[in-house]
From TrEMBL:
A GO molecular-function annotation: polygalacturonase activity
GO biological process: carbohydrate metabolic process; cell wall organization
Name of this protein: Polygalacturonase
Family statement drawn from the similarity comment of this UniProt entry: Belongs to the glycosyl hydrolase 28 family.
Chief localisation class: secreted
Length: 212
């Protein structure tokens, strides 16, 4: 299902790895990280049919830099809230990334069900988007293909997320979508120097249940 899995590891350095899969191949995540700390992923081009990099519960101190993604579903934290008792994701930096013709750019996703998990201390810095469907997205009602959706409220707490120096083009009018939990609204969301356009026009944004 995944090309590379980093599970239950510490002090991992991954650099210069090339990953290629067909853009229409499902469940072919490039690199998946979970239950690991002090991981670096550097200078890695990824073409795939799912997330270029997916970040699961229990990830701490992750540094991603100079990664190119496309085709694919972007760089995603999640999906989270698969389990009631779930470890958090914290201290993640995603820097100097390029997304080309991807479904998503920078994404945080969780199922709409109770969970003890959280996401905090994430920095997205210096991304270039070209024809990306959802450049910036937090989706706490994640349910692909709308099949077997939990239909509850996400328990994942999301706070202290920074988007800085993000620019490029979107393939849809809504370039920024924050769909957070009504029970645990997102807090500490900060955007600085974000310039995303759709058909050379001013783009739209969607924001629900975001506080501060």
């Amino acid at each position: 299902m995944f090309h590379i899995v980093i599970n239950g590891c510490q002090n991992v350095h991954l650099q210069g790895v090339k990953i290629v899969a067909a853009g229409n191949s499902p469940n072919t995540d490039g690199i998946h990280v979970q239950l690991s700390r002090n991981v670096e992923i550097l200078s890695t081009p990824i073409k795939t049919g799912d997330d270029c990099i997916s970040i699961g519960p229990g990830t701490e101190n992750l540094w991603i830099e100079q990664v190119t993604c496309g085709p694919g579903h972007g760089i995603s934290i999640g999906s989270l809230a698969k389990d009631l008792k779930e470890e958090g994701v914290q201290n993640v930096t995603v820097k100097n990334t390029i997304f080309s013709n991807t479904q998503n750019g920078l994404r945080i996703k969780s199922w709409a069900r109770p969970s003890s998990g959280y996401v905090q201390g994430v920095r997205f810095i210096g991304s270039v988007m070209t024809n990306v469907q959802n450049p910036i997205v937090i989706d706490q009602n994640y349910c692909p293909r709308n099949e077997n959706c939990p239909g509850q409220v996400s328990g994942i707490k999301i706070k202290d997320i920074v988007y800085e120096d993000i620019r490029g083009t979107s393939s849809t009018p809504i370039t920024i979508k924050f769909d957070c939990s009504s029970k645990n609204p997102c807090t500490g969301i900060r955007l600085q120097n974000v310039n995303l356009t759709y058909l050379n026009k001013t783009a739209q944004s969607f924001c629900s249940n975001v506080v501060g």
